[in-house]
Amino acid sequence: MKRKRILYGLTILIVVLSIGIALAIVPPPPANQDLGIYDTLCEEFAEDDCRACHSSGVPDTHHLLVQNGVYECTDCHQVTTDPDGTGVGVIRNCVECHDTSPHHEAQEAVDRHCSHCHGSYVDDYDDGHSIPTYEPSLITPDTSYTVEDGATGKKWGGCEACHEPDSTSVPPIYSNPETHHNLGSLSLECNMCHGDTSLNDSVNENLLSIRKCEDCHGTKSLHNIQYNYTSTKGQLGYGHVGDDWDCAGCHAWYVAYSYAPLEGPVIPDIHEVSPTMILAGDETVATINGTNFVNTVNGTNYTSDVVIYIGTGNITLAPDSITASEIVVTIPPLGAGNYGLRVVKSGMESSLVPIVVVPQVTIDSATIRRSIVTIRGSGFSDESYNGCLGVTVAHAGNDLETSIVTWDGTRIVVECSPSATVGDIVTVNALYGSDSATIG
Predict the structure, then answer these.
(1) How confident is the model at residue 4, as a pLDDT?
(2) CB 422, CB 440: distance < 8 Å
(3) Are residues 229 and 300 part of one domain?
(4) Tell me, what's the pLDDT at 344?
(5) How far apart are CA 115 and CA 127, in angstroms?
(6) Which of 94, 137, 206, 391 has the most CB atoms less than 10 A away?
(7) What is the CATH number of the domain that holds 372?
(8) pLDDT value at position 82?
(9) By the 8 A CB rule, do 281 and 328 touch?
(10) Rounded to whole angstroms, how far apart are CA atoms 395 and 419?
(11) 280 lies in the same domain as 294
(12) Is residue 136 located within the same domain as residue 244?
């Protein structure tokens, strides 16, 4: 009897383990949402979703627009009255202003040069990458799927094997048609994906051909996508090269559970860049966190460089140190402005991450005549805001009452009451920082 119980228990254990193994080979769907842009619509985005890419320089990006006359300070900093007196609010939730995606209005998007922002996760339609000219074969991925397992509902042989919607996720995961039909002004250009739409009838097979998809999603990009390759190699559903199934999911024309994976220099992915503020004219040691900065496949070691895009060219920087998840790099002095940063590994490029370089606030001199203090320097910006930005004068341990007479980027004139004296400490609190000096 005891032996029967043991055998019965072992039988149950084997069955449970068999079920576990069977379930383990079934990928999400939908695909894990750890890499790149979450498969949702812009209207579903929350602030955290935006900051997944915009981890650096967000306030100063907007401050530069104030300096350039696009915004006023009060567009983002509302003056409020509360029980403790007048205060200044700060809008930090991106979607309060950005209720639709601003990205696909950029010229690079209009020109269909998607890799400018998305790096090697996509191809550009005119970059010369290889697209087969022969008719799709049995192993060519379908825009939807080739075969479906009647018992499990699992799909094989196409994009839907992983890219299916899930309305229960937070935010909801949308289907490929829904995400691709919500690309801002690009949505109006139907022929970009659907070919000659003037032939829109039931027998036109070119309305959604895999060859049109390959304009942007060719083997050059697809075969090197994997989230955190070091940790997910051997697991399915995190990309296209992690597990044997990942190849079969796209290429099988039958219900399959194994396939030989194609691996190489997996595309690097940036999560965060710090510091968030870089000062013009200063050498800056930056830390970049992410995944796939280095990887080893079949004895070949792949490593990354950091590239800074400056508009008319770029600067390639070798890391000071590098691991699979962190790069430390020294950025040379740059002028004030907006730049792009990406990690590049054996030709595979991460998405473009914006970084902002702001002017330094520097007082060169502070002089007094009667009750008027004149401050000369640089980086003051062209706007002051009482209660948030401005000038303080410390006299005998107390701050004098001050009022701004004039303020521009290099010169501030302020009146003090009572009058300041030589030796007092003046401090300028400007848009991008502060500096102090002794009145002489």
Answers:
(1) 40
(2) yes
(3) no
(4) 97
(5) 10
(6) 391
(7) 2.60.40
(8) 60
(9) no
(10) 9
(11) yes
(12) yes
Residue 147 phi/psi, 5-degree rounding, is -145, 150
**What's the pLDDT at 22?**
36
133 and 173 part of one domain: yes
| Domain membership flag for residue 111 | no
- Domain annotation covers residue 289: yes
pTM strictly above 0.70: yes
The residues facing 436 across adjacent strands are 427
- Which of the listed residues 322, 338, 358 is the one where a domain comes to its end? 358
- Are 167 and 44 in contact by the 8 Å Cβ rule? The answer is no
- Residue 79 falls within a domain, yes or no? no
Domain residues for the domain of 430 are: 362-438
If DSSP states are collapsed to H, E and C, what string results for the chain? CHHHHHHHHHHHHHHHHHHHHHHHCCCCCCCCCCCCCCCCCHHHCCHHHHHCCCCCCHHHHHHHHHHCCCCCHHHHCCEEEECCEEEECCCCCHHHCCCCCCHHHCHHHHCCCCHHHHHHHCCCCCCCCCCCCCCCCCCCCECCCCEECCCCCCEECEHHHCCCCECCCCCCECCHHHHHCCCHHHHHCCHHHHCCHHHCCCCCHHHHCHHHHCCCCCHHHHCCCECCHHHHCCCCCCECCCCHHHHHHHHCCCCCCCCCCCCCCCCCEEEEEECCCEECCCCEEEEEEEECCCEEECCEEECCEEEEECCCCEEEECCCEECCCEEEEEECCCCCEEEEEEEEECCEECCCEEEEEECCCEEEEEEEECCEEEEEEECCCCCCCCCCCEEEEEECCEECEEEEEEECCCEEEEEEECCCCCCCEEEEEECCEEEEEECC
Using CA atoms, how far residue 2 sits from 10, 16, 57, in Å, is 12, 21, 69
Residue bearing tokens 């070949």: 300
- What are the average pLDDT values for consecutive 10-residue runs of the chain, which has 440 residues? 40 34 56 88 84 81 78 77 63 80 83 92 94 91 90 87 91 91 76 71 59 91 91 86 81 69 82 90 96 90 95 90 98 92 95 90 93 92 65 88 88 89 92 90
pLDDT at 383: 60
* Within a domain: 42: no
